[in-house]
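REQUEST ID: PR-0412
SUBMITTED BY: lab tech R.K.
PRIORITY: routine
TASK: structure prediction, single protein chain
INPUT:
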Amino acid sequence: MFRKPSILWPEGTPPSDAYCDEDKRLAVLAAHGTQGMVDDPELQELVDLVAKLCDVPMAMVTVVEEGRQLFLTRTGIDARETPRPTSFCAHAMLGAEPLVVPDAREDARFTDNPLVTDEPHIRFYAGHPLISVEGAPLGALCVIDTKPRPEGLSDIQRESLSVLAKSAMRRISQRRLGETAQEAVHMRESYLQRMIDSVPGIAWSADGAGNFDYVSAQWSELTATAQPRRLADWQNAVHPEDWAQASGAFQASLESGKPFEYEWRLKLSDGNYRWMLARAVQTPTTEGQNRWFGTVIDVDRQHRLSEARDLLANELSHRIKNIFAVVSGLIAIRARGKPEIAEFAAELNDTIRSLSAAHNYVRPGHGQRASTLSGLLADLLAPYGTPDHERFSVTGPGIRIGARAATPLALIFHELATNSAKYGALSAPDGFVTVTVEADCEGDDTVCVTWDENTRGGAVPMPGSPEGFGSRLLRMAVEGQLSGTFERTYSDDGLDIRIVFPRTSIQT
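STATUS: complete
OUTPUT:
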């Protein structure tokens, strides 16, 4: 068996062969942090109870260190430790069962032990080993008497000693687990802090009232100012033109609980400003309070690129609109004095105007009605109304349309409006067109447009005429370009057309 110099390694079989190595056993003992458990109240209660149950004057919870036996808790004895070579518990901890010594004077292992021959004059000893989950012997829960007890322990006393020893070991392990968990928490907090500090942006947290209790180090690095504690502390770092709206938006989020997102300019330590994107979300805590966690990231490059793209797009849009005007003017010039093509020229100019209207929808957010299908329909039908007589209505949700879909949609509904003005409801004095937009009308992700013409007593277009260019254009745009379907239905008072589009086809 392994023995270190000057260490009494008693005879017996350790609970686990792996921990015959004293260095390993001591490492496990150190991991439990038993030094911090001296006079532990819960262990003291166990010691007091086992002394009463076993009817002895002395009891203790011990751990056997390299050179001493330490009493974590004790009763009936003043000493807090004894040298390891004299330790009874150093023997007891190596057994699988409790060590019971009825009379130490008659036991060869302890006859000459100073604890037997001198104070406290141990005669009877019973100790149950304290074994860690790894199988390392740490010490014992023991009871001691100054009188021999040939009968040893009763069955109930032996059982009580065993149960309380296991309770003592659990208590010691709890502290270890607690310290391990605390170390893990500290480690995770350290990792998290390092991760936050390495993120290229500012991280912050605030209470429900907007008082900031944490702002990452990037704030001081960027602004060279003290970390803000209140919302007002941000004002000196935010561009004066942005402050009112930015602070108002954040205050509104605090009151509503909705996520906060806003772009504003941050003043850097060199006096220059950079565009920042601030985001924050509200998170409830276990205490029932709300907290805010947010970030501020640099989007200056993206913002300036976006401004440059918008400038270029506006210039291109202006030039394209000019081209439409030039083409329309050329058509008018070429048709001048040629009555035989006047009607064709007028229709062509109408088509160009519809394309010009559709162009406003190519760039989202620049159309009069925010690039929606209902907005496009209203714009295309607007020329057919008069100040004293509304000739159409458009109802339904504002479904977004994409740049690619804008042109074929404009051509489709321009063709329907032109035909109505020539032959249908809009050609009748009191005729009326009702356009209804529906979402998810034929299952998910579909958009339906119902075009309802009512001549109100006027002429009704008759079916069966040969399909002309306009009809072919309509079919090509609906079916070929937008993957939709359409059907015409003639009634006594006019024409009904129902067009169904896949939502994806009109939003790309």
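NOTES: Residues 287 and 356 are 59 Å apart (CA to CA).
REVIEWED BY: pending
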